[in-house]
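TL;DR need structure tokens for one chain.
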Amino acid sequence: MKELGDLDAIMTVLAEADLEPILYAVGQFLTHAEIGDGAPWERVPKTQTFIDHVWTASATTAVYEPGVEKNRHWIDKTVNEPAGLLMEFWFELFRRRWASAGDDWRGITEADKTFLEQALNDGTERGALATTQVAGRLHFLDAADSAWCRSRVLPLSLDPPMRLGDGGGLSVA
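>> reply
TL;DR here they are.
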């Protein structure tokens, strides 16, 4: 299990680092770390601390404004900004945990629900990036925990109604 020790050492450094000046480099790390057959980050205890640390470092006061010019390429922004990349990483680790649980899967854990709800309730651009990632995985979350998904995620609504390419936004109803 030397590999897990090495991964834990990496996560310990990342979980304690000042991420704000290197946030985009962290995003690049997340892009490569979430590869499906990559390192077993989901088995490293410090990974959740790192995820929380990246989420905090991604904080912004900018509010997502549907239809404004800077949000015309929202999907591109979602898959390239650190908060969006963090959500992709989180979903890959969640998928791995679910797959390894097999028949013992009992639904989304309270810790995972808390993280997702924090993201869904964030009224800034960071939250909108996360909500976009969540909305794109609605089928996945419904299969993982239908009751929670239908009570917490399905109420997502389009506000204003989105037309292809107009930059409309997702919000929690």
